[in-house]
Design a protein that fits this description.
Two copies of one chain form a homodimer. By secondary structure, chain A is mainly alpha-helical. The first copy, chain A, contains eleven helices and no strands. Chain A binds a DNA duplex through helix 4.
DNA sequence: AGCCCAACATAGTGACCACTATGTTCGTCT
DNA sequence: AGACGAACATAGTGGTCACTATGTTGGGCT
């Protein structure tokens, strides 16, 4: 009776099938773009049939929307805002994280760019539903950044008079823009250069000396 | 014999035909993206036949390359670096131009984003020829920016110790990133916010008080 | 045990795509 | 004046696309 159980586990598991599709789609869309990725590419990579695909997602666009809601948002928050909780001084955390996210990137990830930025530039102007969902991710990123700036302010790490909303919008713009520029230039020295400028900008609003352990 | 001449003017003019194709293609690619724009879309908008198109451009990709080399590059320089020549203080010029380029944008242009950024995010990772050509535009933009920073430094407008190359890379990244973020958010108040942060960053490297006439 | 429906699998289908094969026309050059 | 080639125009062509019509199968529920 062993075989039945172990085989059956892989057979009818709709939630797992859906996740396999989403996972395969995320990789392909990240690397090739949404329009350039065909449903066939996705089902081949996921190891399922087109029938399974269209059973779970009525249209290709619906898959794209699910990608943003269920995969992309967590991905971005996991990378950019969640790690800030580990730092006593959020300003120092943002500087350190900008650097770390850059150092951790593989060559292929640099070539592929920022998954949020990719989709924003490709889909925002041609599909209002995509834009709304991507806008939600971008705003959440900015709001979380602002929340950590507020925390920094409350604990005396910020100079008085800094407009936290404006600063958080600029911070996210710099982070997104850096990934976008790097995707084209493919030159890590430029990334180090952008990091140092970013650090200078962050330090200009800091009330304390920033010491970074390397 | 009047008819012959006036009609003939529009008939066999290869240079004009080529330009009509490039102009129509630029608009469509700018708004819809390169992959989403079909050759048929382009020839319809240009008012020429597919035969004419493929006579002037062997493949659709070749048209894309010509777009970058012959249209996009001039477009970007005309908008971002050429106007800096009119300012005595280039730092002030960059601040003023960031603002002016934003104010001059129509709603549709905001929705369409930065034409260079659009193509970079869409094509850089999937076509090396595109990447090289786009890279040329981006580097030219950065180098021109650096040239104006050098001019500013020579005339005493910059604080000592500013790394001009790093600063120019960050400036262009902020300009590109702002257009990219705006394309999604469609909210001019965010643009004003980004402008003020950009201005603060520029002022942090300035040796003089910046006075902007509104 | 048998029924039923979600969860797939298979095999198309029309639309659109970049591109081509081939024909025609006009200006130029001798 | 006649030839000739660049500058088009017309009508396809194979391939790919998102999507669908129609089966089949397995597990849960009575």
């Amino acid at each position: 009776m062993v075989s039945k159980g172990s085989l059956a586990a892989a057979m009818r598991d709709p939630e797992k099938t859906r996740m396999r599709i989403l996972g395969a789609a995320y990789d392909l869309v990240y690397k090739e773009g949404f329009r350039s990725t065909s449903v066939n590419d996705i089902v081949m990579k996921a190891g399922v049939t087109q029938g399974a695909f269209f059973h779970h997602f009525p249209t290709k666009n619906d898959l794209g929307y699910a990608l943003v809601d269920e995969v992309l948002k967590d991905m971005m928050m996991e990378r950019w805002t969640k790690p800030l909780a580990a730092y006593k001084n959020p300003v120092q955390g943002m500087i350190a994280r900008f650097r770390k996210n850059m150092d951790d990137l593989s060559d292929e990830e640099i070539r592929s760019g920022c998954p949020l930025n990719n989709l924003m530039q490709e889909m925002s102007s041609i599909d209002p539903v995509f834009r709304e969902k991507l806008r939600g991710v971008l705003l959440a990123w900015m709001e979380e950044t602002e929340r950590y700036l507020k925390k920094a302010e409350a604990e005396g790490y910020l100079r008085p008079g800094v407009d936290l909303k404006k600063a958080s919008q600029f911070i996210v713009t710099a982070e997104v823009g850096s990934s976008g520029v790097m995707k084209n230039l493919l030159d890590r020295t430029v990334y180090y250069s952008l990091y140092e400028s970013f650090r200078r900008y962050m330090e200009s609003m800091s009330a304390v000396e920033i010491l970074l352990e390397v």
